[in-house]
Task: structure prediction
Amino acid sequence: MLGLFALGFYGYTKLPPRLDPLAPLEIAHEPSFVTSLKMRRLQADTGMCLGTLTRAASLSFVPKAITSSEKGCGAADALTLTRAKLVYGGGVRLTCPALAALAMWERHSVIPAARDVLGTDVTRVLHYGTYSCRNVNGAATGGRSKHASARAIDIAGFELKDGRRITVLQDWDAGTPEARFLARVHEGACGYFGGVLGPDYNAAHKDHFHFEMSGWGFCR
Result:
């Protein structure tokens, strides 16, 4: 009975798209309590995901498969980013859901955090790469990293419009506005990526944030 009531209520109540769990994700929309659900749907529906990116005025990309003879490496559905709201220091090759998460993060976390905390704009995101055919933490044995399937990016720092450069290695524990900015964008990524790791996780991440599309729920 309750389920029928809920369906009836939904049928007679038109929710705005950003609050409608059945509406596709729009990069320009402010995040809401259904954003994480929309992000998960993109992982299961390639057509929906490509539609989300195509409608984003700030993005340009080209489909370009990554092939590899190594087991567990490559990404047939990889996209190469050609334009975003921010400039990236090097090539970005990611699967569609990971690229959508990156676009949400830069627009709704990085840009407002820089203005609120630092009083300026970010001009460039510095990163250590996306696709890499390797195991977790570069180990000789073990499971493949999400980098091996183009589902991860490692963020090293930022360049600002006023000339400052902020890096995870130098500024994470500095107790400065730059450190507060880094903490905010690290936390902000947790709403869009399935997994987020930073310097507080282990020494291997002392100089970068690791963002990946995977199972949901770890933010460290």
The first strand starts at residue 60 and ends at 63. Residues 1-10 have pLDDT under 50 and may be disordered.
